[in-house]
Amino acid sequence: MEKIRNWMVAAALAIIVVGLAWVGHGTGIIQLPATGFMSELSVWTINGSLVVAFGLIVLIGSWKLLRAEPHGSGFGDDQFLGET
Questions:
Q1: Helix locations, 38-81, DSSP H
Q2: Which end of the chain has fewer CB atoms at under 10 Å, N or C?
Q3: What is the pLDDT of residue 10?
Q4: Which of 54, 49, 31, 28 is closest to 40 using CA atoms?
């Protein structure tokens, strides 16, 4: 499970970096190449923001849902069911 979580975190970070690059191109902060089709177009700022939000959702989800102990104490054990 730890290996899957590490891959998901790496994928989420890559998604966030791509989204930030799109935001940078859309706002004109990044202008490589100088005649790029993405330069200073608001559609890339919006799309980049949405991609960053998606990356954050994947990052938080993989960090919380794929941890070593996915459930809190008492869930699924005999004490939770009222058995001893």
A1: 42-65
A2: C
A3: 93
A4: 28
The two three-digit tokens of residue 17, written as one number? 């970096």
| pTM across the whole model | 0.72
Quick one: tokens of 81? 């069911």
Measured CA to CA in angstroms, residue 83 lies from 18, 56, 72, 73, 76 at distances of: 51, 40, 18, 15, 11
In the 8-state DSSP scheme, what is residue 6?
H
Q: Residue ranges of the chain with pLDDT lower than 50?
A: none
pLDDT at 75: 52
Calpha distance 47→61 (Å, rounded): 21
Q: Give yes or no for a contact between 35 and 68, defined as CB atoms under 8 angstroms apart.
A: no
Residue reference for tokens 């070593």: 68
CA-closest candidate to residue 11, choices 65, 45, 56: 56
